[in-house]
Amino acid sequence: MAMYVEDWLATYGSPYLVAPDDQALPEVELMEDGDSFRVHPSEVPDGPHQALAFVDGVRRGEAALYQVDAASGQVTRGVAGSHACGAVIADGECRPVFTDPEVQRLVIWGSGHIGDLPSVRGGWNWTCRSIADDAPEAPLMALQERMRRSEGRLAAQLCGQGLLVVVDGTLTYTRGVEEPILGYVKTHSKMLLPPQHHRRVPELKPGDRSSLFRLGRERYSCYLRLAVTGAITGPWAGIVRLEVPQSAGLAAAVEVVDRVAGILPRYASVPWRDPRAPQNLQPVGALEERLRHFLGDQRLAQRAVREAVYKVAAEVQQ
Questions:
Q1: Any idea where the NurA domain is (predicted)?
Q2: pLDDT in tens, 7-54
């Protein structure tokens, strides 16, 4: 049995999470080449290319919060956190351009409860929101969902400006967008194709993509290999999955993925610069770093939350 080592830094987990006993999804069907799985090489442009807008977001939980009912002892969980989203536009010729980021700082409570945090010195203030779910992890999951929705709104806006948009992640939060848009998925958590086709995906060479397949009723998808990987890295190293809406038709989806498959490999990251190389594209890595800067220092954010909670406690005691 062959042995491999994962390229990604271990703290980021593995990009290949398919369980050995996983089964292909019933709503998946090969479309482009009938029921055949074929490898489609791409043409790599040497110079400038059509401008791509890479959209991504970052989020950060900054403090776990609790409300305790003195009479019943009921505990309500919340989280103070922030998220930001933005885009970087690249055409292979000019210096990439960042859009203005959208930054939100929130307090999210579970169990349908609410509880504002007062503003504190340094310009720290929070918007309060509530969800019905009472699971301990639900508020942080809600923060993640709000970030993805912000990404979806920005992607729709950029598509409306005529840009070809690449969203980091699935197209789950861009439903209804019918302009040229792609989802860029770095992690493989499910076996989508039948085993006889799934095992052929590692045959892809850099710039090669698989046949398009139907993924449910709204998306087409295919696999793409970005870069050459080392001899001891896993077979799925450097492979990503692209998603495109079905609304424009199969021919239009083929045209878009053919165009992008030749461009994305030139933006593959390198391991000495990015712990998720080569899948975390260079423009996306630069965008994430910029967005984290706009979130501010995490230690100051936590201190601000503590100061706000002290103010709430002082008001209760009066």
A1: 133-282
A2: 899 999 999 999 988 888 888 999 999 999 999 999 877 789 999 999
- Report which of 180, 196, 143 is spatially closest to residue 255, judged by C-alpha positions: 180
What is the C-alpha separation between 2 and 149, in angstroms, rounded?
42
Q: What angle do CA 73, 74, 76 make, to 5 degrees?
A: 135
Q: Is 159 exposed, middle or buried (0-12, 13-18, 19+ CB in 10 A)?
A: buried
Q: In angstroms, rounded to a whole number, what is the distance separating the alpha carbons of residues 137 and 34?
A: 43
Mark 75-98 as b/e (b = at least 16 C-beta within 10 Å).
Answer: ebbbbbbbbbbbbbbbebeeebee
Six token digits for residue 211: 């046949």
Residues in the chain: 318
Q: Can you read off the two tokens belonging to residue 259?
A: 């165009």
| 291 closest CA partner among 144, 98, 142, 106 | 98
- CA trace torsion 141, 144, 150, 156 (10° rounding): -90
